[in-house]
Amino acid sequence: MHLKVTAAVKTPHRIEGYAIVSEDGMLANAAGVMPDSLKFEADQIFFERGLDGVDVVVHGRHSHENQRRSDLRKRLILTRRVAAIASDPNNNNALFWNPTGASLDQALAVLGVPDASLGVIGGTDVFGMFLDRYDFFYLTRAPGVQLPGGRPVFPGVPEQTPEDLLASHGLKGGSPHPLDRKNGVAVVKWHRDNGK
After folding, report:
1. Domain extents in the chain
2. In 115-193, at which residue ranges do the beta strands (DSSP E only) sit?
3. Comparing C-alpha atoms, which of 73, 76, 36, 43 is closest to residue 55?
4. Distance from C-alpha of 59 to C-alpha of 142, rounded to nearest angstrom
5. What are the residues whose beta carbons fall under 8 Å from the beta carbon of 99, sequence distance 6 or more?
6. CATH architecture of residue range(s) 14-192
7. Which of these, 12, 1, 16, lies nearest to 109 by C-alpha position?
8. Distances 125 to 7, 10, 32, 89, 90 between C-alpha atoms, Å
9. Taking 90 as the threshold, does the pLDDT of residue 106 lie above it?
10. CA 6 to the chain's CA centroid
11. Which element (helix H / strand E) includes 87?
């Protein structure tokens, strides 16, 4: 079922990105699967708390947070399989969205939350699409993990590091915040230098 697209009045008031990556900037292996080597309980808790603080989760068809509250969250699922915007027959809180057929404002209006804050959770093209719009990006590194030939967090990785790409799009990194001292896992909050 396709839904009518109507114009939205506002743009999202906050866009945040969340990713954990290997040392070579990958968020999944060559098969597109997030390996256990990138899964840490402390990072999962941080990730879940972050998503609890946004209105809408944004991701591609193959990404999902798989948490206990996942099905309660409103979400936009990016896909080329619809012309613009369509309902998800399996989830009343979700819409399929093709950015080439409808704007983000239109998709949020159809979802019923035109001024929503967004939590972007991947994959590669979805993360890349918002590089010029993130207010914050929380980048966690998994030390000692290499995923050669894997799926990069952003288009342009590994030729550039994720940090270099964030900086080249106007974000500044803060100090690493330890999430799991035993395993050396830390997150860096990147923010847009616009007073936010």
Report:
1. 14-192
2. 117-120, 136-141, 151-152, 171-173, 177-180, 185-192
3. 73
4. 21
5. 78, 129
6. 3-Layer(aba) Sandwich (3.40)
7. 12
8. 25, 24, 13, 24, 24
9. yes
10. 25
11. strand 85-88
Going from the C-alpha of 83 to that of each of 3, 18, 64, 92, the distances in angstroms are: 11, 27, 22, 19
Cβ within 8 Å of residue 154, ≥6 positions away? 25, 124, 127, 128, 131, 162, 165
pTM to 2 decimals? 0.90
**pLDDT tens per residue, range 144-170:** 999 999 999 999 999 999 999 999 999
In DSSP notation, 88-118 reads ETTEEEEEEE-TTTS-HHHHHHHHT-TT-EE
Say which DSSP state 2 is in. Answer: B
DSSP assignment, residue 57? E
Contact 40, 183 (CB under 8 A): yes
Which of the 8 DSSP states describes residue 5?
P
Cβ 82 vs Cβ 3: under 8 Å = no
- Answer with the residue of higher pLDDT: 72 or 90: 90
Say which residue the tokens 């292996």 belong to. Answer: 29
- Read off the tokens for 156: 């342009």
pLDDT at residue 39 tops 90: yes
Query: If you count them, how many residues does the chain have?
Result: 196
190: its two tokens: 């990147």
Q: Is 90 exceeded by the pLDDT of residue 10?
A: no
Least confident segment among 9-13, 39-43, 76-80, 153-157: 9-13
